[in-house]
Amino acid sequence: MKRKKKRGKMKWLVLVLLLLAAGAGFYLFTHKKGEENRLPENMRTEEVTRGTIRITTEGNGSIEAAEEFPVSAEYTLKIDTVEAENGDVVQAGDVVATVDEDSVKEQISLLENNLSELNAAISATDHSGSSALTAPVSGRVKRIFAGVDDVLTDVVTEHGGVMELSADEKLKVEFTPSQVLKLGDKVTVSFLGYEEEGTVLSEKDGVCTVTIADNSDYLVDTEVTVTDEDENVLGTGYLKSNHPYLVDSAYGIVDELNVEVGEWVDSGATLLTRRYSSYNGDYLSLLENREELMQKLQELRELKESCQLLAEHDGIVSELMLQDGTVVAEDTPMYRLISTERFWLKTQIDELDIAGVREGQTAKIVFDAFDDEEYEGKVEKISALGENVGGVTKYTVTISVPGIEKVRTAMSATATIVIDEKEDVLLVPVDAVQTVDGQRCVTVLRGEEQENVPVTLGLVNNTQAEVTEGLSEGDQVAVMGKSDFEIMMDMMQQSRSQFAGGEGQDD
Fold first, then answer.
1. To the nearest 10°, the Cα dihedral for 402, 405, 410, 415?
2. Is residue 200 part of a domain?
3. Nearest-angstrom CA–CA distance, 376 and 399
4. 408: phi then psi, degrees, rounded to nearest 5
5. Is residue 51 domain-resident?
6. For the whole prediction, is pTM greater than 0.85?
7. What are 211-256's pLDDT values in tens digits?
8. Count of alpha carbons within 13 Å of 51, Cβ hemisphere only?
9. HEC letters along 7-50
10. C-beta of residue 392 within 8 angstroms of C-beta of residue 333
11. Domain membership of residue 417 as a residue range
12. How many contiguous H segments (helices) and E segments (strands) does the chain have?
């Protein structure tokens, strides 16, 4: 046994000496150009070609829900049996739970009573609307927002009212005074050739409010100048209604305007006439409530026939709150459906690559669970907030992944994104490029001669390099396979394995 082990160690020593000799031979080859034209065994030749080079970045992450649908109880019902479980994949129309029929009948009875009361209220309501919109208070018309043929509810939505009345016969101007003013001080307000005596009404946070008497010719939004008794300018501002009253309207289309800006109107005076005013707002509200109630009654009557709560969307059941035999109150959350139409993959991209990532870019997705398949995603969002981990800042990139039957939430995946690309460029294997005295160069074979040619590189990835200067298409270049060190380490590892496996065995 000892003799055999010793013989194995001698083989090992001889092998190491041979490898060192091979390394020395390669050294002489690379430093004595012209002495030996034959390429070492660990080198091969490749042709300079034209093609496309891509620079990519990768990020890992896990699958998350892109869209969820919360489902709450529409009525107070008693659950009979729960048919689904958390994690079940369901389609729209699948049974999630069954309900007690008596509880459905009880809800139908309650709604039918509500319907009877609502019908009585509708019958008792005067549904005739007025064609005239009247002034709710006395005042001067300062603004008119509505025009002929305008839908009044749209005007109110945009401006807050149909018209603006000055309800206290005063206008005001707010400005920042150039000197201290006291409440009750008298000033002069000048605009468009008019002069009115004003009174300081208030001062707050450096802003002073002065009021003047309203007049039919005084228009709001007119720029004014405020001066003291010595005609010193105190400041400038714009006329506004001191107490503006916005006139509301719940229905109708403007048929005719009956007043003008600047006109004084008494309470009850007709401001405008409208058409399509056969129903007033209260009556329409009751009708809408009845439509909603009838819809619920129809749904409950259908539910009584099946006593089944059905999934409204395709998805994965999560956060299921239902239990057999329990009562679920109206508006109580029952479960959530995670949409299976698409998912999010949130991955971290290095700060050196994030500038090349843009929304809308295509990403190649590979899942750890089935890494022999590749899917296509799209960059949806790029976070501007970085996270520094171990001295490297990374940014979260959200990628949409189409709904795939095998994909589940929390699955791990890798996204590959192209951050730079060039087409129709000269390409060489990256292993063909050497650095000599700080200059990138490539060994070109010209017949039996070898020449180190300086090159200028463009894009470089793990396998290819773009050459912008120094080479031509079709040139033959020397490509290093494994380095001498890598070959030596492989052989040493192989020898170790053989040595270990051969111990204790006969030759």
1. -40
2. yes
3. 10
4. -130, 160
5. no
6. no
7. 999 988 899 999 999 999 999 999 999 999 999 999 998 788 999 9
8. 11
9. HHHHHHHHHHHHHHHHHHHHHHHHHCCCCCCCCCCCEEEEECEE
10. no
11. 56-66+341-421
12. 5, 34
